[in-house]
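Researcher: I'd like a candidate sequence for this fold, 314 residues long. If you have to choose between options at a position, lean toward the conservative one.
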């Protein structure tokens, strides 16, 4: 007949077994570790990481050790790029234009090219290396990417025909002509001060259309100095008033037109503020209430008017 053999085992062995099972299941005894946190996948090798880690910073950090000349770039570009982007970067059909367009950004149909719009040569190098030619992305060697990048700069009159682009010469062309013209977006829902340290808990951030309140909230949590009334006035002006008052659109008195503003000020600052808040039909045109930005507080508009007076008269 069948017998339970373990019934005959001494108690000590049974207890040792039970303890071992307990320890093993509790993880107190080291088990061989499976790869990856959840037991699958494998650690990336250095070579795999190097393959992915190809980003380049605006100052050129991350560039590969190689170089390429405008001269070599011309042939490569003709072969691999011109069919779509045109021999002079003019764009074939509806393919993107890569050169020209300087001074067109403020026109109704701006031509945004590497020379007229882009900020950094690092973007150009990276874009070409990752995404072009369109049908064979990531197929270019480091040398060819340098040469073609140099040639696209040449097509934009940014380098001479004997230029050689490399890690060393990169600094000479790191910033493209439009580099300085990128500014924080002034629309109300993004009108916050940039925070680089001791920043607000993201969970507490709310979208608001009141720049004045935002400035105060930021000041509460950070050691950064709160924007002064003048700074707030300038900010409101740039976001809501400059569109008409910088150039005198639709009869608006121009910022800095001393004579015009002095004449208006004879009615008193309070009247000018009232007109700016409530709207005003005058001799030269129509000033919409708060410049059409009803989300602005009366105080914010008043600061903008004071800023305009200070800029124009003093
Ligand atoms: C088959 C057509 C084709 C070829 C060949 C081609 N491109 Fe492009 N290129 C495109 C298209 C399409 C886009 C827009 C892609 C997009 O917006 O997603 C583009 C975008 C670009 C841009 C960005 C333009 C901008 O202002 O946004 C650059 C720079 C560029 N290509 C460079 C090159 C270079 C250098 C080569 C040759 C190595 C090349 N391209 C070959 C079709 C092509
Ligand atoms: C859509 C165009 C436009 C915008 C935007 C605009 N203004 Fe005006 N503004 C005008 C025009 C036009 C006048 C001239 C009215 C007149 O005297 O005939 C004017 C006049 C004024 C005056 C003088 C009023 C007076 O009594 O002489 C002030 C002050 C003023 N604007 C402030 C502002 C402020 C502050 C903002 C932004 C919050 C702003 N404006 C935005 C068009 C604009």
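Model: Candidate sequence:
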């Amino acid at each position: 007949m069948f017998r339970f053999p373990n019934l005959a085992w001494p108690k000590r062995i049974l207890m040792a077994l039970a303890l071992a099972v307990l320890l093993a299941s509790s993880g107190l005894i080291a088990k061989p570790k499976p790869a990856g946190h959840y037991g699958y996948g494998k650690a990336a090798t250095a070579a795999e990481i190097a393959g992915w880690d190809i980003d380049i910073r605006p100052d050129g950090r991350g560039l590969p050790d190689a170089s390429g000349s405008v001269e070599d770039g011309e042939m490569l570009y003709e072969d691999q790029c011109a069919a779509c982007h045109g021999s002079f970067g003019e764009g074939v059909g509806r393919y993107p234009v890569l050169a020209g367009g300087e001074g067109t950004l403020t026109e109704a149909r701006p031509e945004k090219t590497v020379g007229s719009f882009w900020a950094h040569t690092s973007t150009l190098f990276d874009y070409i290396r990752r995404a072009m030619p369109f049908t064979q992305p990531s197929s270019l060697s480091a040398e060819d990417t340098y040469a073609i990048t140099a040639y696209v700069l040449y097509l934009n009159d940014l380098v001479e025909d004997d230029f050689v682009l490399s890690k060393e010469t990169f600094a000479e062309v790191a910033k493209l002509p439009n580099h300085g013209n990128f500014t924080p977006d002034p629309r109300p829902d993004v009108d916050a001060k940039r925070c680089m340290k001791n920043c607000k808990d993201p969970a507490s951030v709310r979208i608001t259309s009141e720049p004045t309140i935002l400035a105060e909230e930021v000041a509460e949590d950070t050691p950064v100095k709160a924007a002064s009334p003048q700074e707030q006035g300038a900010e409101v002006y740039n976001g809501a008033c400059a569109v008409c008052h910088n150039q005198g659109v639709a009869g608006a008195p121009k910022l800095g037109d001393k004579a015009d503003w002095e004449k208006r000020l004879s009615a008193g600052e309070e009247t000018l503020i009232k007109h700016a808040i409530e709207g005003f039909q005058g001799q030269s045109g129509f000033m919409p209430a708060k410049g059409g930005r009803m989300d602005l507080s009366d105080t914010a508009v008043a600061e903008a008017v004071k800023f305009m007076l200070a800029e124009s008269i003093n």
